[in-house]
């Protein structure tokens, strides 16, 4: 019995081993909600505009269908369509939908002779499909950079790092907004708004109101709070924070009404509308998104669609490597491809790793991971010794930063010019082509 994981590799092998492949220009694999596969063939064109079909097209098509039936069993959807063959409205509408929703695909077992596309029909996780959403604006000298911070597993210091980077950017005079998108377990908003009464409304409230009225709230004043405490920020209104929302019993009721899976397909994506609103109302340099761990729809939407740079956090554990493989595979296929910077979280301190071997092992493995799942064979892959390569900037474990209640108690650590956070802030600027600190 064939397994789900075997379906696509065996489909590619069957098509590319068929005589039909010689005149094919592209193949689109459509996989339905149950995992069944259907194919759309696009042939090269003759001078007269007709398909350059194989001489024995009908028999070769039948042979391929028989092969796919025997190979894929119940996973074969028993349909091969020729792109553009019929001109009726319904058929053309179907192909228009395919063209709009499919994305380029590079099967690892392909010979490279064909152009492959894939279109996945899913109940959820469509935001993790490459190219599902685009950033709300192009990155330029006059537009804020959107940076997502993500970890496949929790407990790696991601939220502390977001807070540190936000403080460093504001300290350097960069107008910064932090959005707490870890909606099921928010924290960075509360952490950064130390000493300030938390607002009653946050991101969840904004999104609920937006979807109810189908228009943006008049302004962001009730949702966004300025942090200008002299204990954290030296001057000015440079750091703004939008919390997830007030944590009470109504918070659960509100978040239960947000279907992030459908955000991808909505004509006006609510999260895109929120970002556009912040860009319109505030003159910003950076927008930092703290994301939920795991393969959550909101994480995929932000990493794979909203941001200009994805900062990924990894540990030297098999669970972490498996998660990073999935994420890099998705991000590597997005068009345009997202910039990615990997952080080696919880890097062992010198006293427990005097030879620095843990970080060297991490960089070696991350280099292999980027080679196999992010970069293409045709690219000039950054050398592992390149200081601007994305293969795992270390954030060293510090027990003083565990379970922080007050940022002011550890501010000297976070804002130390010799700290790993300073290096990360500089690296973020390098990857974005923007001045940071």
C-alpha termini separation: 57 Å
Structural shape: globular
Total beta strands = 13
Biggest sheet strand order reads 8-9-7-10-6-11-12-13
Oligomeric form = single chain
What portion of residues belong to β-strands?
A: 15-25%
- SSE sequence, one letter per element: HEEHEHEEEHEHHEEHHHEHEHEHEHH
Instruction: Kindly report the average pLDDT value.
Output: 88
Can you count the helices? 14
State the major sheet: 8 strands, mixed
What level of helicity do the residues show? 25-40%
Kindly provide the radius of gyration, computed on alpha-carbon positions and rounded to a whole number of angstroms.
Answer: 24 Å
The chain-level structural class is alpha/beta
Unreliable segments of 5+ consecutive residues: none
Describe the structure concisely.
By secondary structure, the chain is α/β, with parallel strands linked by helices.
List key phrases describing it:
437 residues; alpha/beta; 8-stranded mixed sheet; 5-stranded mixed sheet; 14 helices; 13 strands; 18% strand
Can you tell me about this structure?
By secondary structure, this protein is of the alpha/beta class. 35% of the residues lie in helices and 18% in strands. The chain is built from 14 helices and 13 strands. The strands form two sheets. It has an eight-stranded mixed β-sheet, sandwiched between helices. Strand 1 and strand 2 form a beta hairpin. It is globular.
List strands and helices in order, with pairings:
Blueprint: H1 4-16, E1 24-31, E2 37-43, H2 57-72, E3 76-82, H3 89-101, E4 103-105, E5 115-120, E6 145-151, H4 158-171, E7 176-181, H5 188-192, H6 203-213, E8 224-226, E9 239-242, H7 249-255, H8 260-263, H9 270-281, E10 286-291, H10 297-306, E11 309-314, H11 318-333, E12 339-347, H12 357-373, E13 391-396, H13 411-414, H14 420-432
Parallel strand pairs: 1-5, 2-3, 6-10, 6-11, 7-9, 7-10, 11-12, 12-13
Antiparallel strand pairs: 1-2, 4-5, 8-9
Helix pairs in contact: 1-2, 4-14, 11-12
């Amino acid at each position: 019995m064939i397994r789900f994981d075997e379906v696509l590799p065996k489909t590619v092998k069957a098509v590319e081993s068929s005589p039909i492949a010689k005149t094919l220009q592209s193949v689109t694999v459509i996989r339905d909600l149950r995992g069944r596969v259907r194919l759309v063939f696009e042939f090269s064109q003759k001078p007269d505009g007709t398909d350059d079909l194989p001489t024995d097209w009908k028999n070769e098509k039948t042979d391929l269908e028989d092969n796919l039936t025997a190979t894929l069993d119940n996973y074969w959807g028993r349909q091969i369509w020729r792109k553009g063959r019929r001109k009726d409205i319904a058929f053309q509408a179907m192909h228009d939908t395919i063209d709009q929703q499919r994305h380029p695909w590079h099967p690892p077992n392909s010979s490279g002779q064909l152009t492959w596309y894939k279109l996945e029909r899913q109940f959820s996780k469509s935001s993790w499909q490459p190219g599902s959403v685009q950033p709300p604006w192009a990155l330029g000298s006059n537009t804020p950079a959107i940076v997502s911070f993500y970890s496949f597993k929790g407990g790696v210091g991601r939220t502390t790092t977001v807070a540190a980077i936000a403080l460093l950017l504001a300290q350097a005079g960069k107008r910064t907004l932090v959005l707490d998108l870890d909606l099921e377990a928010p924290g960075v908003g509360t952490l950064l708004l130390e000493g300030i009464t938390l607002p009653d409304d946050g991101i969840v409230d904004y999104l609920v109101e937006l979807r109810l009225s189908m228009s943006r709230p008049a302004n962001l004043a009730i949702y966004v709070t300025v942090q200008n405490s002299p204990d954290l920020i030296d001057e000015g209104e440079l750091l703004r924070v939008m919390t997830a929302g007030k944590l009470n019993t109504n918070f659960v009721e509100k978040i239960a009404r947000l279907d992030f899976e459908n955000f991808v397909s909505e004509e006006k994506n609510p999260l895109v509308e929120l970002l556009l609103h912040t860009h319109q109302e505030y003159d910003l340099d950076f927008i930092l998104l703290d994301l939920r761990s795991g393969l959550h729809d909101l994480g995929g939407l932000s990493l794979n669609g909203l941001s200009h740079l994805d900062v990924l956090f990894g540990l030297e554990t098999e669970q972490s490597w498996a998660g990073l493989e999935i994420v890099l595979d998705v991000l590597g296929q997005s068009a345009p491809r997202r910039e990615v910077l990997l952080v080696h979280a919880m890097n062992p301190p010198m006293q427990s790793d005097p030879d620095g071997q843990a970080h060297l092992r991490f960089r070696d493995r991350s280099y292999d991971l980027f080679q196999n799942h992010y970069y293409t064979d045709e690219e000039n892959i950054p050398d592992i010794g390149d200081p601007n390569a994305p293969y795992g900037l270390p954030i060293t474990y510090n027990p003083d930063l565990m379970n922080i209640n007050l940022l002011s108690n550890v501010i000297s650590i976070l804002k130390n010019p010799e700290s790993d956070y300073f290096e990360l802030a500089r690296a973020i600027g390098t990857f974005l082509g923007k001045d940071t600190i």
